[in-house]
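Quarterly update from the structural biology core.
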Amino acid sequence: MGMFEKVAQKRLEIAAQKWGDFSDAFVADAETIYVETVPFEVWGGAENLVPFLQAYIGVVGLLPEDCYAIRDGFDRAAGVNPLCIVYRDRPEYAEGRTRFQERLKRWPL
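Predicted structure, tokenized:
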């Protein structure tokens, strides 16, 4: 599990504790979403936003119709500025996320 996945998993655990499990109330064809939480150290701020997103979208293979939101997740209390990318998850995106994680390992932060 890569850095992004660990952060996302922790957020899901916190949300589950706060909101409980709603899955029994889902409609039959409810979409599965994925929230990528990218630390500021990786995406680097506004001046790097477009190149970072082009790389992420291109490597993961995100389709425009699957994207819900891209948001700067500034947390004043923690003083961190992660980037949140929210999209409909598909099996092929998991492979793309793995490729992106592998590429980041070779990229100097």
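The radius of gyration is 15 Å.
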